[in-house]
Amino acid sequence: EVQLVESGGGSVQAGGSLRLSCTASGFTFDDSDMAWYRQAPGNDCELVSSITSDGTTEVADAVKGRFTISKDSARNTLYLEMNGLKPEDTAMYYCAGSWDAYAYMGFRYWGQGTQVTVSL
Length: 120
Known about the structure:
This protein is mainly beta and 120 residues long. It contains no helices and eleven strands. Strands 2, 4, 5, 6, 9, 10 and 11 form a seven-stranded mixed beta sheet that branches. The chain has a four-stranded antiparallel beta sheet with strand order 1-3-8-7, with no helix packed on it.
């Protein structure tokens, strides 16, 4: 059974930091492209950052310079380090794995999400 379990969300003040984690099981994590998406109420789901199986990363312009994606293949865990948080970063953050062009937003597997709330 494939599982993606996110953790690390919470409520912080603007300027604060959080580190999200996503522990994967049931598929070959090391061979898979992974990503973080987010969705705020009333907004579309948007890509935050992605990392390919060989470690190539992409970061959305809205979070460039503040968020960093990484992975630990030994722990089957994906991370998102978030610094300089802004109220507009408030959203549910989802971990996604295993690129599939025919799947929702291009990823086959999705976690349940972890809420990030940033207040002034």
